[in-house]
Write a structure and sequence with these properties.
By secondary structure, this protein is mostly beta strands. The protein contains 1 helix and 18 strands. A hairpin with a 4-residue loop joins strand 6 and strand 7.
Length: about 250
């Protein structure tokens, strides 16, 4: 009887050891709030597009894959007359910000089918004058269901021209996030790479057409749940504008 108890104890111990060996491997792919093996990444953009009427045609990026996240950044430059950006079928409305003096901005997003090409029309209304500007980007490795970002925030110059733009802080809620800063400037000034932290500037485009405009998108990978402190971007001259920040969530 004692021998049987000893054998049974040994078998239970071996089984427990096997579970202890396996469980860390399983746990390594789990994180609170989701997260896969790598962070999302920037793919490309379709260039800056300019208009002065009710609408503009914004080009898709050249290389798009199924489930890429498409983001279009829109700016309306004006003299104290805000524009409202029309809803577009198939696109979700992101945050709309009225800077109060020199511009209004919004971003819109959708998940790509993978066969997109050419351009898509975006429209505005309620304005009386001012240029209309847009640029579309795509991002790979982003979660394919639900809202693709977390902790969306914005900052704007609130009617006072400023050469130092603030990128708000951002809290990531899981592993392998990509924190993205989208900078809209109502002038054709040079936009400095976001200082501090680990931001990388992916592109910067500008035009002196109409009321002038510039865009820049920066990002940084964040491996674990973290609070990314607010940072700054320095322009070549004082201007008006809006900054968005959000954390893109990875595929599960």
């Amino acid at each position: 009887m004692i021998k049987k108890i000893i054998v049974l104890f040994c078998l239970l111990a071996c089984n427990l050891t096997a579970q202890i060996i396996v469980d860390p491997d399983r746990a390594s792919n789990f994180s609170v709030g989701g997260g896969g093996g790598s962070a999302p990444s920037y793919v490309g953009n379709g260039g800056l597009h300019v208009g002065s009427g009710d609408s503009i045609e914004v080009d898709y990026p050249a290389s798009i894959s199924a489930n890429d996240l498409l983001i279009v950044s829109l700016t309306h430059g004006y003299a104290s007359n805000e524009a409202i950006f029309d809803s577009i079928p198939g696109w979700y409305n992101g945050l709309h910000v009225d800077e109060t003096l020199a511009c209004a901005t919004q971003f819109k997003w959708k998940r790509a089918i993978g066969s997109e090409s050419g351009s898509v029309m975006f429209a505005r209304n309620t304005y009386t004058s001012g240029g209309f500007y847009g640029v579309m980007t795509n991002w790979s490795g982003v979660v394919t269901t639900g809202t693709p970002y977390e902790d969306l925030d914005s900052w704007n110059t609130a009617g006072t021209d400023n050469a130092t733009f603030t990128v708000p802080s951002c809290s990531t809620l899981g592993t392998n996030r990509l924190v993205v800063a989208m900078i809209h400037v109502e002038d054709d000034f040079t936009i400095g790479t976001v200082s501090g932290g680990s931001y990388t500037e992916h592109f910067e485009v500008s035009t002196a057409t109409g009321t002038d405009c510039a865009f820049a998108h920066d990002s940084q990978e964040v491996a674990t749940s973290s609070l990314i402190a607010s940072q700054t971007s320095t322009l070549s001259a004082a201007g008006w504008g809006v900054v968005y920040v959000m954390a893109l969530k990875p595929t599960e």
